[in-house]
Amino acid sequence: MRKLFHFNHLLKVAIIISFSLSITAQTDFWEPKNNGITSPNINIKELAVNSTDDLFAAVMLHGVFVSTDGGETWNQKNNGLTNLELISIEVTPADDIFAGSTNGMFKSTNKGDSWEKLEIDSYFSRFAKIKSSPNGYLFAAATFEGMFRSIDNGTNWEKINNGLLGSGDITSLYADLHGQILAGTTFGRIYFTNSYGDGWTESSVGLPRVTTAPVLSIVENVDEKYFLGTGQGVYRSTDYGLNWSQVHSGGGNGYVHSLLVDHSDNVYIGTGNSGVYMSSNNGEDWQQINSGLTHPGVYSMVINSSGYIFITTGDGIFKSTRSVVSVEDENIQNEFSLEQNYPNPFNPTTIISYTVSKKCNVNIKIYDLLGKEIIQLIDMEQLAGSYKISFNAENLSSGVYLYKIIAGSFVDSKKMLLIR
């Protein structure tokens, strides 16, 4: 599998130590946040968060609930929703919201105040998963029908199942740090595409590949390790998805419904009946963090820009009682910056480092001295933190080039010298 770009988060041992100490404190780690969303036996299918930390909950039979105050209160917002049996929800980098139901998909451009049903040529119209990619494309997994794609923010949709036939229903979607889209299926298989869905390739070596181990969740950390939550625990790949090995049994019934990576690159798993586990060393060791939980099933997890984690359980929504952003992380996030590439001069590869002080869309492009765009290295939403990206100029001639970053309102550029 082709590695497109190389990212490497700047982590410190102190971050891991301080966080590990914090989760062993006596105060409960979780507290319920269900004010306004406390219907008996409510079934919250999925959570999403936008760039201003508003929270959105897709609730079976009850539509969408929105919180604008960090989960303290929830308000039902179903204006225009003609089907309240919601099963998925996704927020794009532009803060548009897409909600999948058992009969159609809906879009909101005003934080859920109103919804419109999208016209999609789908027979069953049961959209189990929706994912926005870094280039703005939308992917939607439809039960019994495979994958749909929109390249115009949901106006038009097309089926893109080349390579997916016989894979089973798609149960998870993920857009990784390298521009690839990953799809997990009910048959316990994982598929990648480097062409935004024009063709799919299976890469399931080491996975059980059985219906009792469906791939339910996917995540990649900044250390470039992939993790899959399956019906038989957690599997990890350290070679960009070529090979997989189990790193956690999933506890209890083995099901891992949700995965999350925080701002310090810690990995969290939400299990079917054993609560939450966290690893600070790429899945080598795991620590259970269930204090305050009243139900062991955890089905969806999100994190806001302040480092608070929100999860859905059989008893509703819970929030971490403290931020998982450590003092060291906060110092990293104080300001935006773009560093001089290293090495410089270079031939043919160099590293560009930059810091993002808050969650925002990051765009980095390379130009020649006449201002002609050479290549776009990245265009995606990133959390606050420090990053590195590799640039390979093997197809360029010697000379001076510019690299420019636009991150929110922050804009900066620097020169670099390629010597053949």
Q: Could you walk me through the main structural features you see in this protein, from its secondary elements to its overall organization?
A:
This protein is mostly beta strands. 4% of the residues lie in helices and 44% in strands. The protein has two helices and 35 strands. The protein has a four-stranded antiparallel sheet with strand order 1-28-27-26, with no helix packed on it. Strands 2-3-4-5 form a four-stranded antiparallel sheet, with no helix packed on it. It has a four-stranded antiparallel sheet with strand order 6-7-8-9, with no helix packed on it. A hairpin with a 4-residue loop joins strand 15 (181-185) and strand 16. The longest helix is centred in the N-terminal third of the chain and has 10 residues, at 13-22. The protein is globular, with a radius of gyration of 21 Å. It starts with 12 loop residues before the first helix and ends with a strand. 47% of the residues are buried.
